[in-house]
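QA checklist item 7 of 12: single-chain prediction sanity check.
[x] sequence parsed
[x] length recorded as 595
[x] structure emitted
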Amino acid sequence: MTGRRILNPLTVVISFTTLLCVVQVLVMLVKVPTDLYFLPTIPLLLIPLYYDRRFYIPLLLLLVLGVIWANLSPAGLRPEIAVSVSIAAFCMLVIMEITHSVAQKLEDDEARSRENERKYRRFFENSEDGFFMVNENGQICEWNSSMEQLTGLNRASANGKPAWEILYRLVPEDRKSRALYDALKSNFQEMLQKGQVPSPLQTGEQQIQSLDGTLRTIRQNTFLIESERGWLIGLGMRDVTDTHAEDVELRKTNDLLTEAVKEMERRNKEAGLLNEMGDLLQSCLAVSDTYAVFGQFAEQIFPDQSGILYLLDNDHNLYESVASWGGPLASDTTFAPDACWTLRRGRVHIVTDPGNRLVCPHLRQGKQNQGFAPYLCVPMTVQGETLGVLHIQTNEQTSIEQLEQLAVTVAVRVGLAVANLKLRETLRVQSIRDPLTGMFNRRYMEETLERELHRAARHQLPLGVIMLDIDHFKQFNDTYGHEAGDGLLRELATFLQANVRSEDVPCRYGGEEFIIILPEASLEDTCRRAEQLQEGIHHLKLQYPEMPLGMVTVSQGVAGFPDHGASAGQLLRTVDAALYRAKRSGRDRVIVAEK
């Protein structure tokens, strides 16, 4: 081992040797005895004692040989020989210093290498990640304990085997193939030849199957190390099965949350459209107004579907199409109540399979012509009465359960709106119609007469009024009964409604009296119409129930605007007086009011 150094050894040697050479030259100049020429060289022996004792023997031999050489040489050469020996000693010391420095550096490098090796081994063996190394021949040369735990393969089973064979053993059974084996082998051979990691073996997640059949998700990382004999391949594997499962679960949760948000947005949009549609439906004044409202909002509420709204026509007992949206529909425009299963069952009817035997009959013709589409029919039932049917055709991608809920909600809202409008219409009709004859009642007649008189006065147009009364109606009731009298009133009302213009307003004034308002009719035209009605009533053939009731006659009074009054009250009093005169004059006649 080297002694403790205070100064740089090479500097000390050079300085000290140079000093000795100078001393020897001085000795030569003063011509001291030749035997003393080597005295200045003797202190060189002290340098190894200070620097490195291993150099003492070689340096001593050099000096002894120098003395012997000088004694055997002529006296004149001894000074030169002494200087030469000193220079040789100087060179020897320099060479020894260089040799010592190189040896020391190699020793230090070897010590660091051994320390790095120990650190690498400690890291390699204690790492939680699996690592294995592949030599320049493609064989596994290192296999740590984490790889044993990860794969179930011990070192003895892996070391010395081709890396692609070991990796192929770890491939899940459902993915193994000859092509995959060849690809693994080709990738490793390419790395060993070119020193580049192909993309299939770069950093990424893979799934492996350990010897016990457990599937694991690993994140691999491949790296290359250049050596004197070629490329070494290192491959690390980290088990991320739990992390991957957590990521998968997190992604599922995120997807569910995203779907929930989308579902909430969809429901909010639907709720907004339903509320807006409900507001507009409440603003409708007639059932026909709901058709346009429903058609407009149906396209927004059911954007991916097509459909038809059917309403019941009570007069013909048929369900008729009143609104539709979307593309061409495989459904009839009208059908009888027994042509739809939802009307038979009284609840929603859904058909998603074209082979279903319970396809509604109103779809048979459309099904043959345009092809079958999944559909549902929703009854619009309000207080036990089915007012209509909402028919929707959809596609296989749409959730039929969600569609059913939305369709039922829409059907309920539209059904309530239609029922309210029908009830309103019924109440309005009841307020202006006579329940026995179906003609407008006295209240409606008075309102209409006031309105028509104002219009006639504004436009300077005439207006006629006819008041008629059934002759001997009380005697008729006493003879045939009140039911026969009601039948007579109905027949006469039907006759009057059928024999007036569309703009004329026939009304039942009360009892057996009737009034007809004739807008824009002159007094002459009104009288002529009264005579025609008189003649037509003579030809009525009345029976109750199958017994002839004989001929019926009426007495009529006629008045007109502006000849007989400018107000409704004046006209009614005037025409009533004319009717009274007709009765006093023998009945069955037409009398024009006096001016």
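[x] summary fact logged: The chain has 18 helices and 16 strands.
[ ] second reviewer sign-off
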